[in-house]
Amino acid sequence: xxxxxxxxxxxxxxxxxxxxxxxxxxxxxxxxxxxxxxxxxxxxxxxxxxxxxxxxxxxxxxxxxxxxxxxxxxxxxxxxxxxxxxxxxxxxxxxxxxxxxxxxxxxxxxxxxxxxxxxxxxxxxxxxxxxxxxxxxxxxxxxxxxxxxxxxxxxxxxxxxxxxxxxxxxxxxxxxxxxxxxxxxxxxxxxxxxxxxxxxxxxxxxxxxxxxxxxxxxxxxxxxxxxxxxxxxxxxxxxxxxxxxxxxxxxxxxxxxxxxxxxxxxxxxxxxxxxxxxxxxxxxxxxxxxxxxxxxxxxxxxxxxxxxxxxxxxxxxxxxxxxxxxxxxxxxxxxxxxxxxxxxxxxxxxxxxxxxxxxxxxxxxxxxxxxxxxxxxxxxxxxxxxxxxxxxxxxxxxxxxxxxxxxxxxxxxxxxx
Length: 417
Fold this sequence. Notes:
47% of the residues lie in helices and 12% in strands. With 417 residues, the chain is of the alpha/beta class. The chain has an eight-stranded parallel β-barrel with strand order 1-2-3-4-5-6-7-8, surrounded by eight helices. Strands 9-10 form a two-stranded parallel ribbon. It holds the Pfam family HMGL-like.
């Protein structure tokens, strides 16, 4: 029996290496979404199991490669959510987060038991930086390596897909980090991840570090290489794109960039940047950008975390303008003042907001929408009325009708020319 099991594991290793080589040769970045795990860790963003399922189904439609679905050892709610997600989706690989503890891996095995072997996996993590080694784990470099490789071996007895990420990798000594990756890959890790856990890197340093890791880990081609950035300096998207240019295989993101502290890399921002600049970042792959805005709105609704009105891709003002010059240009050709059309990301359309900065073209357009003939005199009268409104007044259809009435009355009281 032992010989049979050994033979079976070797055969699986060969198959996994073929899959890894296929993904590497394809040159397409794989999106791993962690909205349901790291995103949910944002204070106030807790999701119920059925809400996680709704988001997971939409992420599958979007075309993500894998879902970081939860941390089974943390709560029964996470276990329930993962079980339901496994039943609801078929295409993405569903993974669970685990510390380097056998109990965590066992909990993940239980939660993911309903998934096919090639569609389930675990993501192991262990602190690697001097701060984590000394103050959090009280372990030496050698002990961290031994703990990591031992737990990878244990996880491989239950899962075909085993990822490993050193926590706080961006503040770990580079030679030691490379050694840790090398040992993890030799132990059988199918993916290794570079984590900027506290979001301290800038694009140049992120790019340089990733390049040096690829040069310093001789067996890096035997695993997929992933990156995971936090947004504490507002640079998570820029850092991710810089690493894509260094040919990383997997990027981990969240919808709306939600997550710990200042959040994670925003999936929708990386996706639209890649779709607009394939010459820089390569093909977007199977991701359907028309699903982005509805998904952003769903995540905001279910987590209770509002979208900033100027949030790239999905914010309310992305396709709205009050400026007269811009409104005039948009009416003539939307591309004059838009980087991309609303339909490209599934947004509802362009909004010409009436306000103190608006011009005659926008007012005339709105009057036509009301079925009112936009005579020059009426347009000027409405525009004059708009500029006298108190700050913050929302000019909706009712308000505009009042302005039309007032402008008409004012025009009627004027003496003939």
